[in-house]
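I hope you will forgive my troubling you with a question about protein structure. The matter concerns a single protein, recorded as an amino acid sequence and a row of backbone structure tokens. Please examine both parts with care and let me know of anything in them that strikes you as inconsistent. Here, with my thanks, is the record as I have it:
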Amino acid sequence: MSASDPRIDQRRAGVTREILVERAVAAYLGLAIGDALGATVEFLTPREIRDQYGEHRDIIGGGWLRLRKGRVTDDTEMSLALGQSLLDKGGVDAGAIAEAFSEWMRTKPVDIGHTVRRGISLYRRGGETQVPENDYDAGNGACMRTLPIALFTLGADVAQIAAANRTQAHVTHHNALADAGTLTVIRMVQTAVLGGTPASLRALAEELVANHPSYRFDRKREENPGGYIVETLRAVFQALFGTEGLESAMIDVVNRGGDADTTGAILGMIAGPLYGLASVPKRWLKTLDGATSRTCRQQATSLILKSPLLSSGT
């Protein structure tokens, strides 16, 4: 079995149902914590972060969105909307996903990206559930919310996972380069949930680079990454593979500034299951908004129990 194939034999690997659920929860909490941690320093440069905070290490709110301490942004909120649509529909359905995003936008979220707003507006006007393909639309907005797909499709083959990824992504983002990066993140999350190592995750990242060289992450340090998914994932990969624990990886990536809530969220959804729930600092868990934490735990459990791997009775 290759390092890049997450469909490993659950029993042979000694991974119990309880361990899988715990790792799924760690992925969701990692997402939310990375989002809340990074939001404080979003759009700041590394130098501005150093001048204001020294090193940003705690969930304190504020930032350009003036968040209360512990609150998350659209990264987590859209993930929860997507996850609930999968559970309500019992599958990956573009119409249900688009409607869930539309309902979320009606709540007047604290932040919403231009590309996301445009895609939801297109759906509202004519019921379209796929935006036109756009070579200049390789944003990270579909990747930041993809965790529910990773958990819900655990145990499916890669072609099915890729199709599910495109269904949710193309509601707002339709770009082959972004699809490839997002699929790699999904496979990294799944590999981590199944007990993969940093080496097996790196193999997936290097497979992406081999197919799409713009994602190459072994050159200069990616600082102040924008919303372009290539910059986002280069920063995430550098932080993930250049550190040796969840806390150090999360601190590394958000202190790079730029789109820090999203780099934090994506890194968190991978590092959470990689290092386990026990690795998440208690101060972060305590500070994360309580309602958000409870919803993340509940949804993570429900999604992975509906996955092909666990619902099949293996």
Confidence is low (pLDDT under 50) at residues 6-12.
